[in-house]
């Protein structure tokens, strides 16, 4: 855990910073997830009540099409996409729904329910959304879980699909890359595998499933961030950088959040990944934002500066690392 940061009991300076009133979403999630306040705690309830009218939420809804989806111009063709499952760079429908979930909204909000149900209606019969893209399916699973769709049969179809999709190296890939080499097997995608791990981390009922255990091994065998063929080399040069909002990329912060949530936070094979995260600290207990997708509707703040969203997730990961039973 970051030094001098008290999660329960006394509030530290960094917790007070997260609780500032200008960001009710971070405030609410800090109260309920870091400080373990119940949702009906007066302070938490007051923060949650402010979220629907906060500027980030209002901005997302201002960009919503009257028929319940978000559009974006496709650079390669100039066409507008988003009414279906094809997605652009960080501003089409499933991204917008993900941002609303991060901000603290769920299906109890009428416009969220309308847009989410419309998007889910585009699901394929086997539970897939588009070309069996594993990062998309993992992304959708986590976000629809947060939006309140765990008991929806459409959610379960996607979950069943991904639990029954196997590869020899225990990771995940997608149709566009599967079988592209004639003489050798295609390795799994670190992004798709990472998004699936983050999704499974939110569902404890899946943790003992052989597919999930295999995915855990896929990452632990490479000490999370490194190539199995070269333990000194990063599997992706950008994986060490913090990014928010979370999109189809995968970062060390997201993977540490997943592993600490699943009770692996103090596994020695995570040690180098934790050091990478601690290098993102700009002062004691606060972490910087390295990258924010320029086309994302949700704007998290300036790059290179201490960021409340990155700090929230870093502290939450450290909290779960210190208290896996909690």
Query: What is the overall shape?
Result: globular
- How many whole angstroms does the radius of gyration measure? 19 Å
Q: How many helices?
A: 13
Strand content: under 5%
The N- and C-terminal alpha carbons lie at a distance of: 15 Å
**Structural class category:** mainly alpha
Give helix % range.
Answer: 40-55%
According to DSSP, the number of beta strands is 4
Q: Briefly, what is this?
A:
The protein is mainly α and 326 residues long. It has helices spanning 13-18, 24-34, 42-50, 55-62, 93-103, 110-120, 134-146, 153-163, 190-201, 210-220, 252-261, 271-278, 308-322; strands at residues 72-73, 80-81, 281-283, 286-287.
Write structural notes for this entry:
Helix content is 42%, strand content 3%. It has helices at residues 13-18, 24-34, 42-50, 55-62, 93-103, 110-120, 134-146, 153-163, 190-201, 210-220, 252-261, 271-278, 308-322, and strands spanning 72-73, 80-81, 281-283, 286-287. Helix 2 (24-34) runs parallel beside helix 13 (308-322) and helix 11 packs parallel to helix 13 (308-322). It is mostly helical and 326 residues long. The strands form 2 sheets. The protein has a two-stranded antiparallel sheet. A two-stranded antiparallel sheet has the order 3-4. Residues 1-10 have low confidence and may be disordered.
List keywords for this structure.
single chain; 326 residues; mainly alpha; two-stranded antiparallel ribbon; 13 helices; disordered N terminus
Secondary structure topology:
Layout: H1 13-18, H2 24-34, H3 42-50, H4 55-62, E1 72-73, E2 80-81, H5 93-103, H6 110-120, H7 134-146, H8 153-163, H9 190-201, H10 210-220, H11 252-261, H12 271-278, E3 281-283, E4 286-287, H13 308-322
Antiparallel strand pairs: 1-2, 3-4
Helix pairs in contact: 2-3, 2-13, 5-6, 5-7, 7-8, 7-9, 9-11, 11-13
């Amino acid at each position: 855990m970051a030094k001098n940061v008290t999660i329960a009991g006394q509030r530290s300076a960094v917790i007070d910073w997260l609780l500032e009133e200008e960001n009710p979403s971070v405030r609410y999630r800090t109260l309920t997830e870091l400080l373990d306040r119940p949702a009906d705690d007066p302070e938490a309830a007051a923060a949650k009540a402010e979220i629907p009218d906060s500027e980030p939420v209002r901005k997302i809804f201002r960009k919503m099409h009257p028929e319940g989806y978000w559009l974006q111009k496709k650079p390669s063709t100039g066409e507008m996409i988003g009414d279906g499952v094809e997605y652009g760079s960080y501003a089409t429908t499933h991204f917008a729904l993900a941002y609303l979930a991060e901000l603290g909204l769920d299906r109890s909000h009428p416009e969220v329910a309308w847009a989410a149900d419309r998007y889910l209606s585009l699901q394929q019969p086997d539970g897939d959304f588009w070309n069996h893209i594993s990062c998309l399916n993992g992304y959708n699973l986590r976000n629809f879980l947060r939006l309140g769709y765990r008991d929806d049969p459409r959610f379960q179809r996607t979950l069943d699909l991904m639990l029954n999709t196997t590869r020899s190296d225990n990771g995940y890939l997608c149709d566009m890359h599967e079988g592209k080499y004639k003489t050798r097997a295609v390795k799994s995608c670190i992004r798709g595998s990472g998004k699936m791990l983050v999704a499974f981390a939110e569902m404890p009922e899946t943790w003992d499933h052989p597919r999930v255990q295999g995915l855990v091994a896929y990452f632990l065998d490479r000490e999370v961030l490194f190539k199995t063929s070269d333990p000194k080399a990063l599997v992706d040069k950008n994986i060490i950088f913090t990014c928010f909002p979370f999109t189809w990329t995968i970062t060390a912060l997201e993977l540490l959040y997943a592993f600490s949530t699943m009770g692996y936070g103090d596994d020695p094979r995570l040690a180098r990944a934790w050091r990478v995260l601690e290098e993102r600290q700009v002062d004691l207990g606060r972490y910087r934002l390295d990258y924010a997708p320029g086309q994302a509707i949700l704007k998290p703040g300036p790059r290179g500066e201490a960021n409340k969203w990155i700090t929230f997730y870093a502290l939450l990961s450290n909290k779960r690392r210190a208290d896996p039973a909690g």
